[in-house]
Amino acid sequence: MTILTKPISGEKKDKLAPLVQNDQLASAPPTEDVEGQPSDVVFLKARARRVSTATTLCLILTSLIVVSIGIFVGKSLYNQYISAQMRRFTGYAQIPMPSEDVETLYFRERNPMPDSALLKALAGDDDDDDDNNNVKDDFDNIMRNYFREDFEIDLDGEKYEKIDVPDFRDGRSGRFIHDFNTNTTGIIDITGNRCFVMPLNRGHVLPPRSLFDLVNKMWDGYYKVDTQVVRETMRVVTPPLKDLKGVGSYIAKECENRPVYKLEKYVGGVVKRSADLHVQAKFAQFSGNKITEFDILNFEDVQDYEKKNNLH
Predict the structure, then answer these.
(1) Burial of 221 (0-12, 13-18, 19+ CB in 10 A)
(2) How far apart are CA 312 and CA 303, in angstroms?
(3) What are the transmembrane regions (predicted)?
(4) What is the pTM of this model?
């Protein structure tokens, strides 16, 4: 006989628990999913900018303009400061005054003519002081028959000549400018601070290249020039000129801030002797063919006009 101690309808007991229950081991922190996590770096899609054709052309044109300006400025500076110096001759010569008993003597800069007496005078040899003193006296006497001219000659365009006469015997120190573009001669009265202009006389004034060749021959000492004095009587026209465009740029530049008077050749009437004229009324130059002396008859009219109008 079977005896049941529990009803059949009761729930089954849980399975037996294990005798030893192990604690769950600490696991490593889960790795972050890079693709799944939000990132601090923001990636933006950028489109490549293409330079337009117009912009390229503008850059090229700007570069060409800058280069052209640089070339132009460089060429201008070269022509003004370097090339002009190379094309312009500057020098001086001693011009002999007419005299039958004085031998022609010319000087090259820092190189006198090979005259033994003059070389001794310039060298100052101490061996014989008395002889040296006599030679120097002779040298001074000879040089009284000469006057110096400083030349500036345009050899490139042959447009002008400048002749400075710092000390002419019985004359006035001044500067002559011959402008071959306008066929005008200008006389700058440096002491009186005034200018005179008149037509260029090509019969007495050699062209720049010819004058340069003549000066070189004078320096070499084998060319004897014609230094006969030719006197031209002139009269001044007052008032001074207001428009200097007709006299040329070279004369206008030299006569800036100076009154400029026109000279006319005097024709007819009684003429004063050259010796009777005031020394301020005489200007002379040698420009290749004879010594030309300009005698201004009415020079007192110029002085009176300037005094009345307070020009000086």
Answers:
(1) middle
(2) 10
(3) 54-78
(4) 0.62
